[in-house]
Amino acid sequence: MSSSHDPTKQNAIDMTNARAATSIEVADVRKFLNGGPLLWDRRKKIVTILSNDPVFDKSLRAFHSRQEQFLRGEAISNRLYELQELHKWSQEDMTIALSVMDEPLPIASHNITFKPVLELQASTELRSKYAAMTASKGILGCYLQTELGHGSNLSCLETTATYLPQTQEFELHSPTLTSTKWWSGALGKTATHGIIQAKLILPGEKDMGPHLFFVQLRSLETHETLPGRTLGDVGQPDTLCGWASTDNGFARFDHVRIPKENMLSKFAGVSDAGEYVTPPHAKMSFSGLIYFRSLMVTNAGWLIAKAATVSIRYATVRRQGEIGPDGLERQIITYPSVHVRIIPLLARAFVYLELGRALTRRVDELTRDLSVGDTTQLAELHHMVSGLKVLVSTTGIQDLETARRSMGGHGYSAFAGLGKLYADFLPAATYEGENSILEQQVVRAALKTFRSLSTPRPASLSGTSSYLCLIRDKALVPPKATADTWAKPEAAISLLEWRASLLVQEMANTTTTPDPSITQRVSRAITEAFVAARVGELIAALDSAFKPRAVAVVRKVYLLYLLTTLESALVDLLSLGLIIATVETATHNPTRGLRLAVARLCKELLPEAIGLSDAFGFSDWELDSALGVYDGRVYEALWAKAQQEPLNRTDVTEAYEVSIKPLLLRGQKIAGAKL
Amino acid sequence: MSSSHDPTKQNAIDMTNARAATSIEVADVRKFLNGGPLLWDRRKKIVTILSNDPVFDKSLRAFHSRQEQFLRGEAISNRLYELQELHKWSQEDMTIALSVMDEPLPIASHNITFKPVLELQASTELRSKYAAMTASKGILGCYLQTELGHGSNLSCLETTATYLPQTQEFELHSPTLTSTKWWSGALGKTATHGIIQAKLILPGEKDMGPHLFFVQLRSLETHETLPGRTLGDVGQPDTLCGWASTDNGFARFDHVRIPKENMLSKFAGVSDAGEYVTPPHAKMSFSGLIYFRSLMVTNAGWLIAKAATVSIRYATVRRQGEIGPDGLERQIITYPSVHVRIIPLLARAFVYLELGRALTRRVDELTRDLSVGDTTQLAELHHMVSGLKVLVSTTGIQDLETARRSMGGHGYSAFAGLGKLYADFLPAATYEGENSILEQQVVRAALKTFRSLSTPRPASLSGTSSYLCLIRDKALVPPKATADTWAKPEAAISLLEWRASLLVQEMANTTTTPDPSITQRVSRAITEAFVAARVGELIAALDSAFKPRAVAVVRKVYLLYLLTTLESALVDLLSLGLIIATVETATHNPTRGLRLAVARLCKELLPEAIGLSDAFGFSDWELDSALGVYDGRVYEALWAKAQQEPLNRTDVTEAYEVSIKPLLLRGQKIAGAKL
Predict the structure, then answer these.
(1) pLDDT digits (tens, 9 = 90+) for A378-390
(2) Would residue A216 count as lying in a domain?
(3) Which of A419, A510, A662 lies closest to B239 in CB terms?
(4) A480 and A590 share a domain?
(5) Largest CA distance in chain B
(6) Rounded CA separation B496/B572 (Å)
(7) Where is the active site (chains A, B) (predicted)?
(8) CB contacts, 8 Å: B148 with chain A
(9) Min distance A35 CA to chain B CA atoms (Å)
(10) Does B250 sit within 8 Å of A642, measured CB to CB?
(11) Which domain holds residue B551?
(12) Number of folded domains in chain B?
């Protein structure tokens, strides 16, 4: 290593060189990933406004206490709508502005749960009374479902809403400690109103199970808690310091009366006399959840894109280990053990972003269908988003952690930026439907379809169940994986579809003695087969989306997605006989071909890695990562951040007089010496 | 569900019943796990003292800011040694007291790195000058190795120690920003002295590579930073809020002179004239790291034990989902999807605790050997602890996260207690040797031994390499896994040894085209084969350790360890042909037998789960988890914790006037309405 070499300057040189090596037209790919030139343009304008506004400054947030983070979350919520008025942002602009926020905001509950549920399930009267105020944030809402003692089994919720025919009111009540509503975002300190899940009790103590009610929580004059309610924050909400910017709250109700019209009665109501009015479509209430979950696919795509951008940039400028041909330590991204971990994140981000966009279109169509009473797409979309929600939350969490760990020691620094994203995203495995519950729903639907195939009236196969064709058409036999398989998207897709089919078949044949992980594996296999088929469609459409050089590169990105999915499915592929091993193959491990194909693809994509991650279009403000800065000068960024640490305001810490000095003096006395 | 049922009271009933169901003598197992009745007795006494001392109170720490956590860490460090003096605790007592602390303490760097390295590597003169002060904490030390721009490749460190023959001094210097020492525990605000890795430069600009030097950092009079040093805290040290109680620091040196005697010169020195004196045993410097890493095995055992205790207790009292035979929702621990995840944690904790104890004995022996110049055990123990460090840090992180996620929504609460353990343990994958570097060392040693087998002078096989007998003795053929295999420890051990052998062979045969994950997989396979053989020995010794009922139960615990290890190794076992699948087996998945065996064992251990976790002996103070309280009253504990959240001190938050009110008023104006 040359002694005149300065690693700090080398950072910028390495980044410039890597950027120059990219062969694709980054601007084109960026427009594609952002949903077209118009949307990219809007995002850029909005990000410029936000990043220059002091309310959105991130430079000190790593040092904020929980309270400071919460106050900042509220200030951001307010300022966003102030800016909307100021700049006359459309609804779509606001969606973009909210989507580039990397904090869970108190306003999110209002937008993502309260408002859609009110719109979809309130009676016309209730809606017309509150729709304008809800849209304009004249009231702020939250959604109260989970209780301290009760989670996903809604039928066991304890909160009651008892109908009183005399006064035409419902009485909301929390009979026990465990019936306390718990975890609801914005419930603690922000929301003025809530929509609450409570057991509807009709005259004669008839328990009709959980229903939704609209209830005011705080005064619109003073913001004080209204009588009969006990409200509060559940406390430093996340174990890893996530979600500090929002007030997940608790609520108890002591015989609180609300008018009869406050029941959300579009699909189920109570007559004045107290008789239950049956809903025409019980499943209609699912569609709210479908909306929330579909958003998570795009959200996971952007998160993984951030993780990919930060880790690829850092690995490009970080040099460590062996001395390379330039006489310097090698850039760590050149080690296969590093790049096979982080290049696949690019692939997952590309796939999830496109998948999310397609899903949003499907859900918009569904919403239109439902508004005219057409429920034909409801079940299919419900299972699709359930499986996808599990997949993207599981892989998103893994990818964030993979990216962080790939950065070695500095990856642990709060200034690396990925830890906060991880902590904020982690609960995604539980909220909006616990993953294990959703898996059961996905699998149950698949088993039903599978069983119908041997009946006189087989279900028609499409979308999430089309892989079952392989089982239905008995003439088809599973392919043999060969070296060729790893170069052909269609072969990879076929293997993933066979895996799903054979696993569903195995599960159907072993229902009396299921192994405890089969539900999880079957759900994942079904969803991955579905996504793989969509990736096949994306590949087929590549020529119309990109110029030739980018087509070749993005094709590799999509193929890498398929191959890494296969790699994570190896136990299934091997145990189902889709990849064959024998004792004799011990010297010719049949999984080597796949692993080498992944390694080869990653290596081929290496010169494009910076270009592909630049194509996501993140500004330094959006990433807020000392390790992911655009210019690559990571060490200067880390140093500058550390200087702001509050402990560094004084040379001698206040712990000295209180604790360190007594410890030293005692030690010196014991040693009988003074140096 | 009966309407008179009170889930709060049910918590305590469920816990009492579960405790009564245990068949083993908990007290006996507890003594065993704690290393005998004497050590258990000491731990109990020490925990009683600590948990009644206000300095060690944990009731508000979830709400502490970084600064408050740091001040608490310093106060705890001081108080521990004050208590040592007060209660006349022995060194062994202090080891226990430090081991029950669940905070990374500033004093840890002094005890775990500074002191041992000084003792082992300093010259007699330097040692005699500082030994007493180091032992008594009259000075406080830290260890400066990693630099801002440089990690595990020590030869590329930039900090220099230039020998000046004229004055018989070394001049320490940080030539660049990237040479800044970074991450060292206690360096920021606590340590008065440090041992620093720096490139030794001899006259004529001869670069002799990294060596260790002793340097004072802060004044012993005022605690101010001495001239020529720039010291500080690297900032909120962990991305997930871990390590807040310690001051990971940075340091730069501007031509700081230290006397020649300050070089740690037991194994390598410089003559007065500036000539290098070659070390007799270059590897001697490894032995410090061996000591740190061996501690991590026991540490991981206790951490997993905590995760097991908390998750098993919560799953015992949490009821959710289906209505069971008692008319209540089922205890979640009764679901196979839950208990197959958390019961195996018991097994891993049992194994690691015993393994750690045996390892500590081996390392103590090694230390004695080394002090008389005997290095025969050094290489073997170095590879053993390297592999084990990787294994226990990897599985420990996974197990903590598995336990936390098994607890559903409440698992995300800071009051669940496991998140803090996770955040504090996560860096274990990187510190004291980055895992991927250690894996390379383990694998390199194995390949060397393997290749020697076909030479006229084959290496002797023992300990970490004994599994290679299978390859050496050509007559042996791999076993066929049958239903029986999953009931017999020896069969499971044999499969794990065959896997290690065949993978090493595969790697040796494919060095020209290695797949990128093979180093990781081979290292893991070797270490798991080694641990499996030790578990075989533990099983053989069971009859002498326990009464008959406990023997039967603990035997199942150890077998469960082996089977879950096999399950996590399925890709290898299948692809190496140790478990055979064919297309025809698609309806008879060959991995089902293993999965069902794991499920069966977990189910059989279910009635013992509370007893086995009680046997670790944790007090509520040690666990500090609302979900893991001994009496099972988890909801009351969560409620009580939430009431202490600082945001709950006022009903109306201070964010109301600043942010929420403007947002509401603007919305009401836009909607043109006031409710």
Answers:
(1) 888 999 999 999 9
(2) yes
(3) A419
(4) yes
(5) 94
(6) 10
(7) 432 (proton acceptor)
(8) 635, 638-639
(9) 30
(10) yes
(11) 1-33+286-647
(12) 2
